[in-house]
Amino acid sequence: MLTDIIRAVILGIVEGVTEFLPVSSTGHLLLAERFFNLGEGNFWKSFAVLIQLGAILAILALYFVKLWRIALGMFSDPAARRFVIGVLVAFLPAAVIGAAFGGYIKHFLFNPWVVCFSLIVGGAILLWVDQLDLKPRYHDATAFPLLTYFYIGCAQCTAMIPGVSRSGASIVAAMLLGTDKRSAAEFSFFLAIPTMLGAFVYDLYKNRADMTADNITIVAIGFVVSFITAIIVVKTFLNYVTRHGFELFAWWRVIVGTLGLIALALGM
After folding, report:
1. I want to staple 230 with a disulfide (CB 3.0 to 4.6 A). Which of 55, 93, 112, 245 is the partner?
2. CA–CA separation, 246 vs 268, rounded Å?
3. Burial (CB count within 10 angstroms: exposed 0-12, middle 13-18, buried 19+), residue 250
4. Residue 128: CA atoms inside 13 Å, Cβ hemisphere, count?
5. pTM of the model as a whole
6. Beta bridge partners of 179
7. Predicted pLDDT of residue 3
8. Exposed (0-12), middle (13-18) or buried (19+): which is 79, by Cβ within 10 Å?
9. What stretches pass through the bilayer (predicted)?
């Protein structure tokens, strides 16, 4: 039991740190499973999805006032209603493609080789975008054009490939479509709510037979750790990227991906 608790804490930290950074939480969890014998087995694969709820609640806690105001005004305030529609429009592509091809993607693409190559390619793209002389036209994540929300949602679908990064794909797309760094990052947080909540509900239902009393305790530990870690990371991340951009995260991806490929080539 103690070993499982330690695993839950470590994976909870990995999830909380990486979920909202453009570095791929799924990719890091898969590499942790491969190289450090963390999270092997069906339950631990479900665990990695279920503890995402902790990260979701971190966003709800940090943006509670704004989201509560939007929820209250959804039927009376055109701007609030338009933002809710925008989030749903952005969520729709991932929901459709995930339902249609989710099993295929997990079967063929969820392996450490794909993760490492995706980390490196994604890092190169982040470096490229960070150095572009972009002229932001949109500075409020709740007021993008509806077509912009849709295109961001389409870009998010590439994150079904492990190592790509859901937040990274949506942030890059948003910036190329004219948003500033902070609002791009904030919208990636908001878009995570329906995306990750849908994955949580689906995985919980599919693996409900594995939810014994002991397993529920382990999930709860990972959930709390990911919640606390995500709150710290999100608050720090927004201030950091506003001032410094994404270069640090791009190089982190490249270094982790390269080290992973070397380890795989050596038979580890």
Report:
1. 55
2. 30
3. buried
4. 10
5. 0.88
6. 138
7. 83
8. exposed
9. 43-63, 83-104, 110-129, 141-164, 184-205, 217-238, 250-267
Question: What is the model's pLDDT at position 187?
Answer: 95
Cα–Cα dist 46/49, whole Å: 5
Q: Which residues pair with 237 in a beta bridge?
A: none
- Judged against a pLDDT cut of 70, whether residue 1 lies above it is answered with no
Residue written as token pair 């608790």: 5
* Structure-token match 């933002």, residue found: 83
Tokens 């932001």, located at residue: 136
Cβ neighbours of residue 225 closer than 8 Å, sequence gap 6 or more? 8, 9, 12, 13, 16, 51, 54
Q: Using one digit for the tens of pLDDT, what is the confidence trace for 93-151?
A: 988 988 888 778 877 888 899 999 999 999 999 999 989 989 999 999 999 999 999 99
Tokens of 221: 């530990």
Per the structure, the complete domain to which residue 63 belongs is given by: 1-266
Q: What is the pLDDT of residues 65-80, one digit of tens each?
A: 999 999 898 888 999 9
Provide the 10 A C-beta neighbour count for residue 200.
Answer: 17
Q: CA-CA distance, 173 to 167, in Å (whole number)? A: 10
Residues found in the chain: 268
Tell me the two tokens of residue 225. 């750790």
